[in-house]
Design goal:
Helix content is 24%, strand content 32%. It is of the alpha+beta class and 270 residues long. The longest helix has 19 residues, at 52-70. The chain is globular and about 60 Å long. The model is unreliable at 1-32 (pLDDT under 50).
């Protein structure tokens, strides 16, 4: 994104696709290498009854896609038949189980929301407390926490309707800003044509305005628009390499359609 606060690109560190879905498919619902034993989880998809069937189906697909990107064996099966909110997930081949679990169950929700603020060169309008931000937002706008460098957590008032969301994403990759493998990464993303057209129209008409890049409910950056932008953008947030790669992976695999609760967890043998 050609906007204030987005530093220039340096040597790219692309997120590698470790296991292509077509090659990884062993049986329906099974991705990755052969099952050598590992961990299982009983999951509950927390969706309303009217949306449950679609949410269970989409959650399974998102988990399978993320397993393919991670290169681990993954089997997702519904428990209890039609109408059940339960999924049984088995994962094998994970070197870091905690990381894999976090990636597989992450919400992965991205929204680009206009900030209610004076335009640049006026500074970004922030609030020190949620109460102050909510009072300013009233019933018309939303409040997003924002990690402001050198200040700590502040709050932004943002428009309720995002310009684009994670559903508009075509791809996302992690990139180093300094060439240092240990720190200072950002996530670059590209948009599908429809999202790019919408983003281009909004940025072209709103030069100088601030826009919040909101990830899982938190504003990670809030640059101002210096000129029209179409299909590319960045998420900055002092990420290390693993954080950036995990976020990119969850974004490119799609939003989780509903919250996921882990009801049971243990180990299993093949």
């Amino acid at each position: 994104m050609n906007a204030n606060g987005a530093r220039p690109f340096l040597a790219p560190a692309l997120l590698s696709l470790l296991c292509a879905a077509a090659a990884a498919c062993v049986t329906p619902g099974t991705f990755g290498p052969r099952d050598s034993g590992g961990v299982y989880m009983i999951l509950a998809v927390k969706a309303d009854a009217a949306a449950l069937e679609g949410a269970v189906r989409n959650a399974s697909q998102v988990i399978e896609t993320r397993c393919a990107y991670l290169g681990v064996y993954c089997n997702v099966e519904r428990e209890g038949g039609e109408g059940s909110d339960r999924l049984r997930l088995r994962v094998s081949g994970a070197q870091d189980v905690a990381r894999v679990k976090a990636v597989l169950l992450a919400e992965g929700k991205l929204e680009l929301r206009p900030v209610v603020s004076l335009s640049s060169p006026a500074p970004l309008t922030t609030y020190l407390t949620r109460e102050a931000a909510e009072q300013a937002a009233g019933a018309r706008y939303d409040v997003a926490p924002y990690e402001e460098e050198g200040v700590g957590t502040a709050y932004l008032v943002v428009e309720r309707e995002p310009v684009v969301t994670g559903l508009d994403l075509r791809d996302a990759t992690a990139m180093s800003l300094t060439g240092d493998e240990a720190a200072d990464y950002q996530i670059n993303f590209t948009l599908r044509p429809e999202g790019a057209a919408r983003f281009g129209a909004w940025t072209g008409a709103n030069v100088g305005r601030y826009i919040a890049i909101v990830l899982n409910g938190k504003a990670r950056s809030a640059p101002y628009i210096k000129g029209q932008i179409t299909d590319t953008g960045q998420i900055n947030g002092n990420f290390n390499r693993q954080q950036a790669e995990d976020i990119a992976l969850t974004l490119k695999s799609g939003n989780m359609p509903a919250p996921i609760e882990v009801l049971e967890e243990g180990s299993y043998k093949p």
